[in-house]
Design brief:
Elements: H1 23-37, H2 44-47, H3 54-65, H4 70-81, H5 86-96, H6 105-116, H7 124-133, H8 137-145, H9 151-177, H10 182-209
Helix pairs in contact: 3-4, 8-9, 9-10
């Protein structure tokens, strides 16, 4: 039985260490290729021979000849080609990231976490600053008033607040366009308000337990 050689896809980009290339993005794509091709740990260095050039190729050659491993190669590649402006660029993106009209709170949170996870280190207070600055003013004020200082607590509460605001807006629209259904409107509003109070109490109990 002939065993098929496990290889990365030919579409895998070549990393040459060019300042315009992001070593972290390249490593991410290569790792995804390893998973797709089911390449074993001991074969990873040889698997990327055709996907590096110039200085990265020399670094790879050194690791192969010394019978090193993927982790050591990856760490040296990161330390050699880490873009010193990378973190600053990401922080600039965080500053411009806003929960604008048309962008759901879930998408805002997803984009925010994607950016912060790319930064090598970010303190909790800095994360909270950027997160709250991008929120709508009403949500931001509520988080400040409730003295929420931990991102893991701020995110679910912000989602609750935004969901409540959207629901109220829908009911107001219904009221303005269906004035004959005032009784139904009041019932829906009161039910929603009760749910809102319950969610806040639940959040408080959960926060007290932590």
């Amino acid at each position: 039985m002939i065993t098929k050689t496990k290889r990365l896809e030919n579409s895998t980009p070549i990393f040459s260490g060019n300042p315009r290339d992001d070593v972290y993005d390249w490593l991410f794509m290569v790792k995804q290729g390893f998973i797709s091709a089911n390449i074993e740990e001991k074969m990873k260095l040889n698997a990327i021979v055709n996907f590096v050039s110039d200085l990265p190729l020399l670094i790879l050659k050194k690791h192969i000849e010394s019978q090193s491993n993927w982790i050591s190669f990856e760490n040296e590649l990161k330390s050699t080609f880490r873009n010193i402006n990378r973190d600053q660029k990401i922080r600039s993106e965080l500053i411009s990231l806003k929960n604008r009209e048309g962008l759901s709170i879930e998408n805002y949170v997803s984009k925010f976490l994607t950016l912060t996870n790319k930064i090598s280190f970010m303190a909790e207070d800095e994360k909270m600053f950027h997160f709250t600055q991008g929120l709508k003013e009403s949500t931001k004020r509520e988080l400040v008033c409730r003295n929420i200082t931990i991102l893991n607590s701020a995110i679910p509460l912000a989602i609750q607040l935004e969901s409540f605001t959207k629901s109220v807006a829908k009911i107001n629209y219904f009221r303005n366009n269906k004035s004959k259904n005032n009784v139904l409107f009041k019932k829906q509003y009161l039910d929603l308000f009760d749910l809102w109070i319950y969610s806040l109490k639940t959040h408080n109990r959960f926060h007290d337990m932590i």
